[in-house]
User: Fold this.
Amino acid sequence: MKSTAFLLLCSFFLFSCSEKKKSSNDTNKGSKADTTIVSKPEKPVNGYAPVDVSPMDMSYFPVNYPILKMSDSITTPPLARVVYSRPHLQGRNLFQEVLKYGEPWRLGANEATELDLYKEATIQGKKIKAGRYILYCIPQQDQWTIVLNSNIDSWGLHPDVSKDVARFTVPVSQTDNSFEFFTMIFQSTTTGADLLMAWGYVETKLPISF
Assistant:
């Protein structure tokens, strides 16, 4: 009788240890999976809108105008602003896999890039009225044609020459370091600003006088 009771007790003990070990392993597996999901989600979710890999950006002239305005460092209105989306190379070669010479490009991604002029400006001797314009280019190896167009509030680029306001030819230079993200900024000059456009190893400037 004592022998039978001893065998039953041993069996119960071994079964309990086995279940405890199994339960511990299952818990560890679950914890690891939860950590992986939280820290490295395979499919990030936004319930209201998809996350854009080419985020929208804007550059002002004077540079950092909104910050200067909020700090009371400037009281005059801005002179210009460019609104664009920033595509990035992601390991691609700019003029073999992304752009092509001679083909119009929207100077960005998503919506058409827009240039806002808050007052009349002069570009390469041409008077440009204050207003909003689409800004796109036709790139060549040594120079780009920069185009102002009136077809605002549009997606992508659908060139309509009848709506072109002005065209300007600007030289292209090579940079020492590659720009991963397409970049547009204003750089101050003695007469106004240069609108700098850079991507990959290429950059160009559109001089604007006010």
